[in-house]
Design a protein that fits this description.
26% strand; nucleus; DNA-bd_pseudobarrel_sf; 350 residues; alpha+beta; single chain; REM16-like; seven-stranded mixed β-sheet; At1g16640 B3 domain; TF-B3 domain-containing protein
Length: 350
């Protein structure tokens, strides 16, 4: 009987390590974690396939970093690049990390706080490493080719709008820096109930109709037999269009998984937020053309961060937003309530 159990256990192990697409391991961060991190020996020994020299670590918010795998004393370690990942994600000794390996060259990482074993919220608001960033300072618009789960913003004084009741706000001059990424607009129809809070009897109709931007379209010849190259080129052209269309008083956000399906939470860049938004939670109107959605802007005073939650999901669904699409935001009614953001949607055209 014991032999049968051992045989069964061996068979189960073999099935898991050789046939499962994804494998996982957890690791408590040791005192010297800031320099390198060892992978569990059972994990590396059990995977029959050879690991690549370099792998991608993707944090909870989608920010990615290339890290070198090195062998020391017959144990695999994350080395070059790991230090930057640890710093970017605010890692501390005894934090618990869960790694999901895709079987090729990528690890998705979840990060749990050592004190309460809940996810570290800050790890969702991390920008991609500077090694992949490319900045364009034309027209004061900040852009990145490999934009993270979070946002880059470009802000300044928005145009005035007649919407909403007027309330006194700070007369302080506002400036900011934004990131825009365009794509081609689409039409989507539907109805959005949005948030019940402060709806004021207004019917929030989710009939999104985006306006296309002017300017010359940049066209590149790409090998049609290479789908990946076509997609990458489409994303690149979208980014270039966004950079050209990004106003000095707005900001743009490249859609990441946390924006459009994982959490449906859109972080407002801190610099733009502190100069344009009140440091308190309140309702916000998202407007595309003549169509409006009611969303909730939530401010976290303890971390000085803010983002769009309730209502944002409906906006995403109604406009069929996908990863790498881009939304350009511009405040439309300075000094008036509710806050109104005009939104232009650019979609990756493949």
């Amino acid at each position: 009987m014991a032999d049968t159990c051992r045989s069964c256990s061996s068979w189960v192990d073999d099935i898991y390590w050789t046939h499962f697409k994804f494998t996982h391991f957890a690791q408590r961060l040791p005192p010297d974690f800031d320099q390198h991190l060892a992978l569990p020996k059972r994990f590396s020994d059990s995977l029959k396939r050879k690991f690549p020299d370099n792998v991608t670590l993707r944090g909870p918010g989608g920010a990615e970093l290339t890290v070198k795998l090195s062998t020391k004393d017959d144990i695999l370690h994350f080395t070059n690049g790991w230090q930057q990942f640890a710093q970017d994600h605010f890692l501390e000794e005894n934090d618990l990390l869960i790694f999901k390996y895709n079987g090729e060259s990528q690890f998705d990482v979840l990060i749990f706080d050592k004190k309460n074993l809940c996810e570290k919220v800050a790890s969702y608001f991390v920008r991609d490493s500077g090694q992949t960033n490319q900045r364009n300072t034309d027209n004061n618009c900040v852009g990145e080719e490999n934009i993270p789960t979070n946002i880059d913003v470009k802000g300044a004084l928005p145009k005035k709008s007649a919407r909403g009741k007027s309330k006194k706000t700070s007369k302080k001059a506002r400036k900011a820096t934004v990131e825009c990424t365009p794509a081609q607009p689409t039409k989507r129809r539907g109805r959005s109930k949005g948030s019940d809070a402060h709806a004021g009897g207004i019917e929030w109709v989710a009939d999104a109709e985006t306006a296309s931007t002017g300017g010359n379209k940049i066209i590149e010849i790409v090998d049609a037999s290479n789908p990946k190259a076509i997609i990458e080129n489409a994303k690149k052209n979208t980014l270039q269009l966004a950079q050209a269309a990004c106003p000095a008083d707005g900001f743009y956000v490249v859609m990441r998984p946390s924006h459009v399906f994982r959490r449906f939470y859109l972080t407002i860049p801190m610099k733009w937020m502190t100069e344009h938004f009140p440091l308190q939670s309140e309702d916000v109107i998202l407007r595309v053309g003549e169509i409006e959605w009611l969303a909730k802007y939530v401010f976290e005073a303890s971390r000085c961060t803010g983002g769009l939650t309730a209502g944002w999901k409906q906006f995403v669904m109604d406009n069929n937003l996908r990863e790498f699409d881009v939304c350009v935001f511009n405040q439309a009614n300075i000094g008036k309530k509710p806050l109104t953001l005009d939104v232009k949607i650019f979609k990756v055209d493949v």
